[in-house]
Design brief:
The protein has 186 residues and is mainly alpha-helical. It contains four helices and no strands.
């Protein structure tokens, strides 16, 4: 191992697959060419600061890709807007339908209530008529009973008078018969 470490001493440090590579200790041939101006100077710093260091072809490709994304976004937003408007239309139709059904139900309920009120008034009228008829019948019945009582009283008086006159007649007959019997006996 020591021999292998000496063999790589000038080129690359020995690295394990699990170890991270240290860019400061590594020396590559590319690093040497970068220092001679083949690479843009301070490219790494520009990337961190946000300056555009890309080639014009790259920006054209980026712009076309950006345009494609914008077109797709626009198409997606159109379909999204269409679906939203369709959903709104459907909701409005549903609300309108519900409103119309509510109005119809309200009308039916109002008709039902007015019909019930009319029926109640008619029943009250019928009840009033029945009450009037019943009261008239009660009055007639009371009149009939009072007339009947009066007749019964008169009949009682007449009966009492008849019984008295009958008794008087019997007494009279008894006296007449007794007077005749006494005359006959005499």
């Amino acid at each position: 191992m020591a021999a292998q470490g000496k063999e790589h001493a000038g080129k690359d440090p020995v690295s394990d697959k699990c170890e991270e590579r240290n860019p400061f200790t590594e020396t590559r041939e590319e690093d040497v060419t970068d220092e001679h101006g083949e690479r843009e100077p301070f490219a790494e710093k520009d990337e961190h600061r946000g300056a555009n260091t890309k080639k014009p072809e790259d920006t054209a490709e980026d712009l076309t890709a950006k345009r494609k994304r914008m077109k797709m976004d626009k198409a997606c937003s159109k379909t999204k807007n269409k679906s939203k408007s369709a959903l709104r239309k459907k909701q409005l139709k549903r609300q309108k339908r519900d409103y119309i059904h509510s109005l119809k139900l309200l009308n039916v309920l109002e008709e039902y209530i007015t019909d019930e009120q009319k029926e109640e008034e008619e029943e009250e009228g019928e009840e009033e008529e029945l009450i009037k008829i019943f009261q008239e019948q009660q009055k007639r019945w009371q009149q009939y009973r009072s007339v009947r009582r009066e007749r019964l009283k008169e009949m009682k008086l007449l009966r009492d008078q008849f019984l008295k006159t009958l008794e008087n007649f019997e007494d009279l007959c008894d006296r007449v018969f007794s007077d005749e019997d006494s005359e006959l006996d005499n």
